[in-house]
From TrEMBL:
Keyword Metal-binding annotated: no
Family in the record: Belongs to the MreC family.
Keyword match tRNA-binding: no
Region Disordered: start-end pairs: 277-349
Domain Rod shape-determining protein MreC beta-barrel core: 130-270
Gene name tied to this protein: mreC
NCBIfam families: PRK13922.11-5
The protein's name: Cell shape-determining protein MreC
PANTHER family in alphabetical order: CELL SHAPE-DETERMINING PROTEIN MREC (PTHR34138)
Keywords, in A-Z order: Cell shape
InterPro entries in UniProt: Cell/Rod_1, Cell/Rod_MreC_2, MreC, MreC_beta-barrel_core
Source organism (scientific name): Streptomyces coerulescens
Length: 349
């Protein structure tokens, strides 16, 4: 329709009629004069409206789903981030708890040996400086670390410092084939030298080929001159095998180290040696032996063994035959052969 004066008048007239019908409908309430017309329109246009709605609703739902999918995706991503943060927090708490236990154990060892230590964290494991068994720690010259200092943890001897940088240092582990440390046997004080063998037990050569050594004996560091590279008394390991001396001047032992070299985390560098040798005081307490249960058998006096192995009491004042061919007791305590044809009363008469 073109925009003309007549079309504008018609539009105004239709709007006025619509307002009039609305006013009449509202004032009429349930008795509205247009109610019949409304019902007739609903009857005619209702099916058409349902059909259009059935066709349009899936499209509307799809549009709404597309509109809401972004919000759901953002919420899902937020929940995933929260879960990841929670898992990281839990993992961090577990790791912090483990490190706290390691630190506490190491401080107890340092206190028992009177070692002044500088705590450090292992930040790398690998072949630095050409060594096959080394670790890198996060302390260096700026922290007072020097070459040839003893490194330990809560279990025992870890190694010695070989290279020092401003903020890091390299430690040669005690199981490296190039590593050697003087050792002393617990109680007997037998001296030797322990060498690393990689992932195998340490090899210890005792100076005394006739030394009495057995499986389970323990070793500590003997110490070096001026306490470098090793301070005395640091636990080394437990004897796991003893080779026969065979008349040699030395005796070979194989020692399982206390330290697990493949799972190092918190270590301590001994920056101040003890004023006196702690001897065996740093070694962990020996496990208590498990008691072996014993069985006590009590024999009842005056009982005789029966055929089933149980003791049977004997009736007082009566002779009881033991078995064929055996003597039976009499009232006077003597024994007579069974079946001799005479009883005790006949003999007394």
């Amino acid at each position: 329709m073109r925009d003309t004066r007549e079309s504008r008048l018609l539009l105004v007239l239709l709007i006025a009629i619509a307002f009039a019908l609305i006013t009449v409908d509202i004032r009429g309430g349930e008795d509205s004069p247009v109610d019949g017309a409304r019902q007739a329109a609903a009857t005619v246009f209702g099916p058409i409206e349902d059909g259009v709605s059935a066709a349009v609703n899936p499209v509307g739902n799809a549009v709404a789903a597309i509109r809401d999918s972004g919000e759901r995706h953002d919420r899902l991503a937020q929940l995933e981030q929260e879960n990841a943060a929670l898992k990281a927090k839990l993992g961090s708490e577990d790791r912090d708890s483990s490190r706290l236990k390691q630190l506490d154990k190491m401080l107890k060892v340092a206190g028992a040996g009177q070692y002044g230590i500088k705590g450090a964290e292992v930040i790398a494991i690998g072949a630095a400086q050409g060594f096959s068994w080394t670790i890198t720690i996060d302390v260096g010259a700026n922290d007072g670390i020097q070459r040839d200092m003893t490194v330990l943890n809560g279990d025992g001897l870890v190694g010695r410092v070989t290279t020092v940088g401003p903020n890091t240092a390299t430690v040669l582990l005690a199981n490296d084939p190039d590593f050697t440390v003087g050792t002393r046997m617990e109680s007997t004080d037998e001296l030797g030298f322990a060498s690393g063998q990689g992932d195998r037990p340490l090899r210890v050569e005792l100076l005394n080929g006739k030394a009495e050594v057995k499986k389970g004996d323990r070793l500590v560091t003997f110490g070096s001159q001026a306490d470098k590279p090793f301070v005395p008394g640091v636990p080394v390991g437990v004897v796991s095998r003893v080779d026969p001396s065979g008349g040699d001047l030395t005796r070979t032992l194989y020692v399982t180290p206390y330290v697990g070299f493949s799972k190092l985390d918190i270590v301590g560098v001994v920056v101040q040696a003890p004023t006196k040798d702690p001897r065996d005081t740093v070694l962990p307490a020996k496990p208590k032996p498990t008691p072996t249960p014993t069985v006590t058998v009590t024999v009842t006096p005056g009982a005789e063994p029966s055929a089933d192995g149980e003791d049977q009491p004997q009736a007082d004042g009566q002779d009881q035959p033991l078995a064929d061919g055996l003597y039976q007791p009499r009232a006077d305590g003597q024994y007579q052969p069974p079946g001799d044809g005479q009883s005790q009363n006949e003999q007394e008469q």
